[in-house]
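Input:
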Amino acid sequence: MSKKYTYYPGCSSEGSGSHLDISLRAIAPKLGVELEDLNDWNCCGASVTHVEAGALPTAALSARNLANAQKQGNAEVVTSCAACYLKTHQTNEKVRDKPGFKDKINEALGAAGMSYDGELHVRHACEVIVNDVGLDKVREQVTKPLTGLKVAPYVGCQTVRPFAGTDRGGEYDTYDDPEFLDDFIEACGAEAVEYDAKTACCGGAVSLMSPDKTLGLMKKILDEAKEKQADVIATPCPLCQQNVEMYQAQVNEKFGTDHNIPVVFYSQLMAVAFGMDPDKDGCLDRNTISADVVKQKAGG
Amino acid sequence: MSERKIGVYTCGGCGIADALDMDQLEAAAKEQKAGFCKSHDCLCSDEGVALIAADVAAGEVTHPIVAACSPRVMEDKFRFDGVETIRANLREMVVWSHPANDEDTQMLGDDQVRMAIAQAKKSMPPEPWTEGAFSETVLVVGGGYVGLTAALEAAAAGHQAILVERSDALGGMSAKWSKVMPHLPPYRDPQENPVAGLIAKVEASDKITVMTDTIVTKTNGMPGKFEVELTRAGTPSAETVGAIVVATGWRPYDATKLGHLGYGASPDVVTNVELEGLLGDGPVARKSDGKAVKTVAFVQCAGSRDPAHLPYCSSVCCGTSIKHAIQMVDADPEVMAYIIFDELRTPGTAEEFYRSAQEKGVIFVKGKVEKVDGDLTVTYHDALLGDDIPMAGLDMVVLATGMVPNSTNVEAPALELEDEKLVPLKDDINPAAPIAVAGYKEGVDAPEAPARPEPSMPEGAPILNLQYRQGPHIPMLADGFADSHYICFPYETRRSGIYTCGPVRRPMDMGEAGQDAAGAVLKAIQAIRNVKQGKGLHPRSGDLSYPKIDLNACTKCRRCTVECPFGAIDEREDDYPQVNPSRCRRCGTCMGACPVRTISFDNYSVAMINDMAKAVEIPDEFDEKPRVLILACRNDAYPALDMAGIQRETYSAMVRVIPVRCLGSVSMLNASDALSTGYDGVILMGCKSGDDYQCHFVKGSGLATERMGKIEETLKSMMLEKERVQTMEVSIADSKKVGKLIDDFVATIDEIGLNPFKGF
Amino acid sequence: MTAPLPESNGKKYDLGFARWVYENVDGGDKLSMCMQCGACSGSCPIGTEMDHGPRKLFMMIRAGMKEDVLKSNTMFNCTSCYNCVVRCPRKVPVTYILQDLGRVAQRLGYAEAKETDNARFAKAFFWSTRKFGRTDERLFSAKYYLSFGVGEAIKMAKANMPVARSLMKAKRMHLGMPHKIKGVKELNAILDKAEEIEKREQGV
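Output:
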């Protein structure tokens, strides 16, 4: 039995985070999750546009998506990207809870003849797997367990902060020491190492604009993975994946380290462990630092 | 009691019989001429208790000696009507703190039995003092919130109360408050002022006599029999009361001394008390031009925690400013209220009140205000920003001034007093001494205590005008607050039967002060009921003994009348001492003071302590076994030794411990006699003395230290080293430390060598 | 309640600034609850890059140091990790407040604010959002580089070349025409309206 959700893939799905999108779409049917794309979705503004656009226009970006999702009819909107989740969830909460905000946002939506009543439920794909699918179902799908693969569970910030611990965030985990990613990894037959940098910050968008300021943050994440002898870092967040993978060369250059650790999405691990095509479905060929070690351990 | 019959009951339980030779204990008892000695495996069992009870009932024993556990435990089990039970501590102080089946341990055990027998030979069941009639009326001085509450509490407990108020109306300071800080959940908004309601209740009570325009002009007598003179418009009247509750409250610190904070420079710099008069239902109009106040800054600690003004924290000013800011913002939401604080102190539920103000948009700024100018510019130093920051454009500045205790009546002229009547105010405890900064680990230097002003005599007349040998004032603890110990003995003054409560005792808000009033009244009622039966008050509550003076031997030296920590002993016209038994707290400080040993209790005396010390068998010098006498205060030192045993801490078996009521009760003669009978050293173990004392009788341990300071001369004349007598401060928590103190002392004795007087 | 930012007339300390922030900045209504414990500054992963940590910035707001606050780089270095938000014992939404304070500084034309990397980046990012309805990583990056001038842009692009190449090789860079949503016009109408409402609210 499957459940239908409106799916908001977010801008990174069309570029740097395409491997998250593709692998998630690949595993979803196996988990009984039916993803129906959100009509004509637009950018959420991420942790960026507020500086240029202000708080209300930034919220209006999410509001348009929510208005379209409301028309689409599914009660729940699922996001795979941390920033999309945070911004959409935040706007949804404000519409529901902040006095006067619903009127303002509807006044803005009204300029395009749209409206939103605040009744949808915005969820993160990981939370859906924890609360709706359940770990048992994940384990059932594993045909090629990733035996012996040591994985550093790198959750990052916005997937859990600030909403994971709240009932609105589905209460699927804590924001300081989340366990869900460890569980996903173990469900795939791999080993989740004790990872102290689990919710450390990669620098987010600041890494894209001024990497010099944040290479030290990424170094901590990489050093800790190396110290725990992880073969691979796994994350749910497209920006974390991109930063930690893409800047390794610069980290090495600045600090004289020799990191070369693949950074993959949990959904890629699941696709491989579910016995699907490691490249076509698992998108391992889309990692710039070779993640073939995942392939090698699969079913071994 | 016709004939003294001493019987010893040794207990073999709790490991005693495993560690000691019980037969030898019996031999020691016999040798001391005990009538008999019986042994039991477990004396505290029903069977064991029945054994003693049967002998008591049969008239076989008048002084049963229970040689078992510490006298601090099983008191109820071993209390038998009509006889005086004596305890020999074999468990905590012998077998639990020394090696089993050891020659020295056995000698210690034997001596414990010998000392108990010596004690029994001198001890008599005390006869209580209950002469004449006792009053049950409570006199409450001060008709403000605290006094009103106290009078109502006394009435509610079934006692008559007389409520005396200096001014022409009840209500005091707080009657003027528009609203008060919240004392009921959810503690978020100012509450209605309860004072008018209390006044109505007091006036309706048939148990409370209200006397306004009245002051207390004289107080004589003692608990249960206070003779007070109440003067109304120059006309005195006399009343007899059982106990007195002093609730004279506080007055605001004199703001004219706060010129640096702008007071006087502008009519719009007002104190928190003055602001109360400006608060109404609507916005506050400022004094200078009637303009509605839109921006206001509250200057916290205005003169408080400042050695040049009030060295202490008044604890309520933060809450008061929060209340004022909320009231002003509630009346006009456009008001911007700044509260500039150094440390915001919101004890207990005041924290909720603080949050409530934050939610209402009151702006809290951490900084120390340096000055306030006539144009209302407030300059404060911000430690975080490291800068002096001017705050300009204010409509009003409120100085949060502190509380000054009304421990005297400043409206009446001060009395001329000879120096010795000021001793309890100035010298017993220095009210201006720095209070140590607590909470620092050993090895970490605590910051220096803040400086305090020179002690000055309180201005104004005494509140009660006590006709006591030690002067008319209620002694003060610190900074003019009338109290004896905030933590251990709340409400207790150093004058028995007189209890202070509310801000005269320490700064507090109305919520606390209401509870304080109830607490003090309960103390007062306890006193009334105890003294009627001849029982002592806290901390020897229930003690029936009291000091008896043999005037035939008295030399009129007056040391007892001067040294009594509670002013219990007056002087007669012929200069002989006169004990007021119900004022007495039974500490025995008079007994320790008397140079001719003429003061004693029925069950406690200098001679008894000496006999106990002498009952110990002193080995001769060739045995090379020193003996050290420890006179240990029963309040802290003795329990600490007990606890050392409970924790199986071991220490030298060369010591012999005699519990004393307080080190104040130890006579210098106890120490010198011990040395002359062959002891090699004497330790006086008691509570911390000094300005931050822990002595349960305030100054007993301090007096002991002082007396023993003088023993050096005596030792010199005996050709003995001064190291042989030491005073040690031991707190109840020192069980891990006390053993080492003892061992170190015994090591010192070993170094000096044994007492040459041995065997004299 | 909303109001235009008070004129401080060159004064270094502005009595009304704290209240203005409380009432007009997103999340500012909770700022009054700050008790200056410093959990925010202690939790910040990037505090070393900031002129002032959040705690100090909030203290400056209370002191009325409007100019210093709005010229500070604190808001523009925030990575939006929300560590301070979840740890604040008084539930002050520190991140939201910083984000909106950055916007206020921008709107008021503070040069310091406009010249931050973050402001340039946001400008380029929002350009893409408005133009296509989505973020085109390739085009907005180019626009961001160009905000520093052509010469600097070429240098930056060159430095980024190895990364760009590897992403291209891994099929993670979109090439060809940008993805554009159907409702670009409708989105812009909504954004225009939202900006208009915000300006109206803040009395600009």
